[in-house]
Design brief:
alpha+beta, 2 domains, 8-stranded mixed beta sheet, 12 helices, 5-stranded antiparallel beta sheet, about 35% helix, about 375 residues, globular
């Protein structure tokens, strides 16, 4: 039996899912465009440089090649008013500090120059939420009991951890865990195209260290990255389907796991995981006096409901949003087994011990943490 749902994904803060590509000042020009209200907005026009180059006469081509080989070349210095027929696409410029000639913009994943959220990203985030909601303290003790210690510190073998994850979703009786995973029967499509893509400059806000300093710098300077993002306010559509077949489940010996992809259980899992994550982030913001993060999470926590849960996806999600780290920390708070400290050592060594994780990626303009969306199921 197949169940199909048309879902809405509302973007609450900029979402970045990288394509792996970057581009610099030789491939875009800054410009302005009017929105539907007639307001002038700053944009970046991504130019098809090859197409534009072929339109030049011989002298212009020679000049272009000569300029291109010089340091700090900017396409806008050669021609700041390149016609739109040479434009591949444009993004809104939501940067507080515009990128310099040697600073690249990381491109978001697209098809035919249209940005979208891959179904695999949504499914991965939902899987983490299900895992969080499914494991209990005995599960945590079982996997972390396999933590070993050597002179270089604690470590947990990849095989042991993968075996633990597989045991939650797959049968122990099949060698290929992916083939017997209940998640095979949950299918999520890529989202519809985003209407608004914006470039933000991003920095890492840090926890306050023991001396009372809150640092935003690395080696004495603030590290800024420039990301194309699906901007807040976008409403995207995607399809979610589940296939229930008890005879196949029995064959794969996963009939005891079918509840994991029941829609109500998935909604409950996403809601519970996001609620715990938001509470953790509120504590981080309050303890470190980061007012804009505190304001963001206090406003958004009201939007997280069992019927329309929030979810964190894409770049900037970090350790707690993509692992069972938050569940481990919760159990440590009550049982004092120091497991989370061991996980910290496994993950980052002993570079710091006053907060983990100690940084959050946020936008310069607005102070938005990356990746928050709200999902509704029809």
């Amino acid at each position: 039996m197949a169940n199909n749902y048309e879902c809405n994904l509302k973007v609450l803060s900029p979402v970045y899912i990288g394509s792996g590509n970057e581009y610099g000042a030789s491939e875009y020009v800054s410009a302005k465009a009017k929105n539907k209200k007639g307001e002038l907005l700053k944009i970046f026009k991504r130019i098809d440089v090859s197409k534009y180059y072929l339109s030049l006469n011989d002298d212009e081509k020679d000049e272009f090649i000569n300029d291109l080989s010089t340091p700090n070349f900017k396409l806008a210095d050669f021609n700041s008013k390149i016609p739109n027929k040479y434009r591949s696409y444009f993004t809104y410029n939501n940067c507080k500090n515009n990128p310099g000639p040697n600073q690249n913009i990381s491109e978001i994943i697209k098809t035919l120059n249209k940005a979208y959220v891959p179904g695999s990203s949504i499914k991965g985030a939902i899987k983490t939420a299900i895992l969080y909601n499914s494991v209990d303290f005995e599960d945590i003790k079982r996997v972390l009991g396999k933590i070993k210690h050597n002179p270089r510190g604690y470590f947990l073998g990849r095989r042991e951890y993968n075996d633990f994850i597989n045991s939650q979703f797959s049968s122990d009786n099949f060698r290929n865990a992916a083939q017997s995973s209940i998640m095979k029967f949950l299918n999520i499509s890529d989202s519809s195209d985003a209407k608004k893509v914006s470039v933000y400059d991003i920095f890492s806000v840090m926890a306050t260290d023991p001396s009372g300093n809150q640092t935003y710098a690395r080696n004495g300077r603030t590290v800024i990255s420039y990301l194309e993002t699906i901007d807040k306010g976008n409403n995207l559509k995607f399809n979610l389907s589940t296939n229930f077949d008890k005879s196949i489940y029995r064959t794969l010996r996963i009939n005891d796991k079918e509840h994991l992809i029941d829609l109500d259980y998935m909604k409950e899992s996403i809601y519970n995981f996001s609620k715990a994550y938001i509470n953790h982030e509120l504590e981080f913001a309050e303890e470190n006096s980061i007012s804009y993060l505190e304001k963001f999470y206090k406003k958004r926590e009201k939007l997280n409901t069992p019927d329309k849960p929030m979810l964190k996806i894409g770049g900037g999600s970090g350790f707690l949003a993509t692992t069972i780290g938050l569940k481990i920390k919760e159990h440590d708070d009550y049982n004092f087994d120091d497991y989370f400290e061991k996980v910290r050592n496994i993950t980052r060594g002993k570079s710091y011990d006053y907060c983990f994780p100690k940084s959050r990626k946020v936008t310069f303009k607005g102070g938005y943490p990356l990746g928050w969306v709200q999902i509704s199921f029809n």
